[in-house]
Amino acid sequence: MLRHMMRRLVLFQGQHQQPTFRALRGTKMKTPRHSPGLALSIWTLSSKPRDFSQPNSSWSPEMRKVYDHYNALCATDPENESEKSPWMKLPSYNRSIKYATGGIHLSKLIQAEARLFTRNVKEQGATFEYVVFINKEEKSCVCVFQSGRLLEGAPGHVHGGAIATMIDTVTGTLAGFLSGPIMTANLNIDYRSPMPLGSVVLIHCVLDRIERRKTYITCKVTSADESKLYTEATALFVSISVGHLFGSRS
Ligand SMILES: CCCCCCCCCCCCCCCC(=O)SCCNC(=O)CCNC(=O)[C@H](O)C(C)(C)COP(=O)(O)OP(=O)(O)OC[C@H]1O[C@@H](n2cnc3c(N)ncnc32)[C@H](O)[C@@H]1OP(=O)(O)O
């Protein structure tokens, strides 16, 4: 049954689509088309998992302020309803499989105890608090990230591995949004200044280019007011078939 359901995963290509999923009848898995168009993966069942990117009591006033700023950009102007905002807030689940409609059911069948690295601690605010906003027209995104006390590296500062995790997550989210199922093939990071623990930073990512199965993303991490540069990175994601994750490359 599981194999049958996995076979029904297909890719959906369409400019300016909201991240909703649609039942398709294809039985063969397809690899994504490699244009900068937006691509989303789909399953056939439907259900709504918990969105971890909603504001919570651990958020500092600064985190809330920046979130409110980008959230407002997502709203459609009531005086010009025909013009939809290019910005959208992405939901955030505790397993990537849950992005697919029906994924909440599959997540109970496939390694039910597994959790996304960045969403695996119950205590709010202790590790990674973040929200990703995508700009569909610019093929870019901004992540508002507040680091928690359990992410310490150098005293009082965020661990470089935690920063790398967030860069991988946000560049990977943009690449996945644009190109469908992908895996990180290469990540280059320059740490420019130490990031204070507990601070709110912005992770800005933009599509550099897509070449065949390769999606290249560039990334900058700055302070919330964008005056200070913390980190710069480039990332390469390679499109995969779902079979790549389940032992078959067909
Ligand atoms: C609304 C929905 C939004 C979506 C919302 C999703 C949200 C969800 C949140 C979580 C987001 C987390 C994102 C984290 C994602 C990981 O962290 S993934 C974990 C870390 N990565 C891995 O474990 C990958 C391990 N490596 C592999 O599996 C394989 O090496 C790869 C990367 C799939 C490539 O293997 P392959 O498919 O056999 O491809 P291959 O033919 O070797 O290479 C294809 C092309 O890529 C090039 N290439 C491959 N590797 C490299 C490399 N290292 N350097 C340079 N070039 C390379 C090749 O030269 C080739 O180039 P061309 O010939 O086309 O020019």
UniProtKB/TrEMBL annotation:
CDD domains reported for this sequence: PaaI_thioesterase
Keywords: Apoptosis, Cell membrane, Cell projection, Cytoplasm, Fatty acid metabolism, Hydrolase, Lipid metabolism, Membrane, Mitochondrion, Mitochondrion inner membrane, Transit peptide
InterPro entries: HotDog_dom_sf, THEM4/THEM5_acyl-CoA_thioest, Thioestr_dom
EC number: 3.1.2.2
Keyword hit for Membrane: yes
Protein name: Acyl-coenzyme A thioesterase THEM4
Reaction(s) catalysed (UniProt annotation): tetradecanoyl-CoA + H2O = tetradecanoate + CoA + H(+); (5Z,8Z,11Z,14Z)-eicosatetraenoyl-CoA + H2O = (5Z,8Z,11Z,14Z)-eicosatetraenoate + CoA + H(+); hexadecanoyl-CoA + H2O = hexadecanoate + CoA + H(+); octanoyl-CoA + H2O = octanoate + CoA + H(+)
Domain Thioesterase: start-end pairs: 156-227
Main localization (coarse): membrane
One GO CC annotation: mitochondrial inner membrane
Gene3D superfamilies linked: Hotdog Thioesterase
Subcellular location: Cell projection, Ruffle membrane; Cytoplasm; Mitochondrion inner membrane; Mitochondrion intermembrane space
GO molecular function (one): hydrolase activity
Organism the protein comes from: Danionella cerebrum
Membrane topology, as annotated: Peripheral membrane protein
Pfam short name (any one): 4HBT
Family: Belongs to the THEM4/THEM5 thioesterase family.
GO biological process: apoptotic process; fatty acid metabolic process
